[in-house]
Write a structure and sequence with these properties.
The protein is of the alpha/beta class. The chain has 2 domains: about 10-80 and about 385-425, Urease, subunit C, domain 1 (Roll), CATH 2.30.40.10; about 80-375, Metal-dependent hydrolases (TIM Barrel, Alpha-Beta Barrel), CATH 3.20.20. About 30% of the residues lie in helices and about 20% in strands. It has helices at about 105-115, 120-135, 155-170, 185-195, 210-225, 245-255, 275-290, 295-300, 320-325, 345-355, 360-370, 370-375, 400-405, and strands at about 10, 25-35, 40-45, 50-55, 65-70, 75-80, 80-85, 140-145, 175-180, 200, 230, 260-265, 290-295, 330, 390-395, 410-415, 420-425. Helix 5 (about 210-225) packs parallel to helix 6 (about 245-255) and helix 10 (about 345-355) crosses helix 11 (about 360-370). The protein is globular, with a radius of gyration of 23 Å.
Length: about 450
């Protein structure tokens, strides 16, 4: 759609079920939009950032060729992050169908059977489709992990996602993390750093010697200065040694004096600790400055399958972490692959589970997929404060709890002030008997105090 640069009246966003498509429009202002705090405001956007926020109707005219959007009837939220994706695995569930589901070890085995048959072109095609789904649902920032297969070129999947990162520059922030296994030669980590990988990762809980694997990855991180994001303690059973991956990771970060960001993803075992054991671990995590990513959708699917009763939830100790001031992010992890055949890429699927399975409030759940996630990923704020990056998602103006429960899929998504997705949903129903004529409709009774 071509937008008239000389338009004097604001362009209406329209209703959730219909309007002119806005994708591609550069936005100079949002007028009459509601904030999560309930205020109705005008928002000026310039240079990809929020330049001003004022009471509705009080913003001076914006002299900018970009469009002004009348966003009355819409709620503006910070665009979401997916802090832990696996784009190399996305949308492969149909290739390795799992009739009854498998635990983490089984899913890993299924993936290793498939990985030798996957090349870079395959990854790029599926990853593009997955990113489109993420963006349409309100996500503008993604950190993806990518395997280094033992067969063939170990960096062929990485190269595909580095290409995708360049394709998305300016629209989607994509961080690529090498997910090396304990069998991956150290030289592969070093070469990945040379090729421009953003983050170094690994799975120490799957290694014969988790401590040695943590040491090896941190050694490379010290040499390269890259951040670290480890799959840690992705099991509900406690280790025989009694020491968790996150404890070893935190102790080494403190001992080394690392200044780059270090993240523990999953950290499921924290949810299995009694309070007296959990408290010192959380304190250690906080002192080390670690960020934690909880991934309820996939871990609810994978964990607790061997339990005959009182099955664990597979969710980390989110309340204790938040109370200790530990940066907390939440994501979906997998999208339609052996590790999660039901992932949709919707951040509000994650927030819904945070409210139900982790017992967080609506605001805490929103923060975990927005501001908290950006903190863990080392990114500047996005939202409606002056100076924030103008990564926003407009949703129908309903209570926040309804939004985060995924009540409506209509969304207008901005990245750096440009509309990158515009999704409207129209429903047509025929359920109820025809209403009686208006004259026959009785007035509701007034309640008397």
């Amino acid at each position: 759609m071509q937008h008239d640069a000389t338009r004097s009246a604001p362009l209406p966003v329209g209703t959730p079920d219909g309007a002119a498509p806005l994708a591609g429009a550069r936005v100079a202002a949002l007028l009459g939009v509601r904030t999560v705090d309930g205020a109705v405001v005008d928002v000026e956007i310039s240079g990809g950032q929020v330049a001003a926020v004022a009471a509705s109707g009080s913003l001076p005219p914006v002299h900018d060729p970009a469009v002004r959007l009348d966003a009355s009837g819409w709620l503006a939220l910070p665009a979401a992050c997916e802090p832990h994706a696996h784009l190399d695995k996305a949308l492969t569930a149909a290739r390795v169908p799992v009739e009854t589901g498998e635990d983490l070890v089984g899913a890993v085995a299924r993936w290793r059977e498939l990985a030798p048959h996957i090349d870079g072109a395959d990854v790029l095609r599926r990853a593009r489709t997955a990113v489109e789904r993420y963006v349409a649902r309100g996500i503008t920032t993604i950190r993806t992990h990518v395997d280094a297969p033992a067969e063939g070129d170990p960096l062929r999947l990485l190269d595909a996602l580095l290409t995708l990162r360049e394709e998305l520059a300016g629209s989607v922030t994509l961080q690529v993390c090498l997910l090396g296994g304990w069998h991956t030669p150290t030289e592969v980590f070093v070469e990945a750093a040379a090729r421009g990988v953003d983050v170094l990762g690994g799975c120490p809980h799957l290694a014969p010697d988790p401590r040695a694997e943590i040491t090896r990855v941190l050694d490379v991180a010290e040499r390269t200065g890259l951040p670290v994001d480890l799959h840690a303690d992705e099991q509900t059973a406690l280790p025989d040694s009694g020491k968790l991956d996150v404890e070893e990771l935190a102790e080494q970060v403190i001992a080394r004096g690392l200044t780059q960001r270090v993240t523990a993803s999953h950290a499921v075992r924290l949810g299995s600790l009694p309070p007296e054991r959990l408290a010192p671990v959380v304190d250690l995590i906080a002192r080390a400055g670690l960020g934690v990513v909880t991934l309820p959708i996939t871990n609810l699917y994978l964990q607790g399958r061997d339990a005959t009763h009182l099955a664990p939830r597979g969710v980390t100790a989110v309340r204790a972490l938040l109370d200790a001031g530990v940066p907390l992010a939440a994501g979906a992890d997998n999208m339609r692959d052996p590790f999660n055949p039901a992932g949709s890429g919707d951040p509000f699927e994650t927030t819904s589970l945070l409210m139900t399975a982790a017992h967080l409030s609506a605001r805490e759940s929103l923060d975990a997929v927005t501001a908290g996630a950006r903190t863990v990923l080392g990114l500047p704020p996005a939202g409606l404060s002056v100076g924030d990056r103008a990564d926003l998602v407009l949703v129908p103006d309903v209570p926040l709890g309804d939004v985060l429960a995924g009540a409506d899929h209509s969304r207008v998504v901005l990245a750096g002030g440009r509309v990158v997705a515009d999704t409207r949903v129209r429903s047509s129903l025929s359920l109820w008997p025809v209403a009686p004529p208006a004259a026959e409709v009785s007035e509701p009774e007034q309640l008397v105090r």
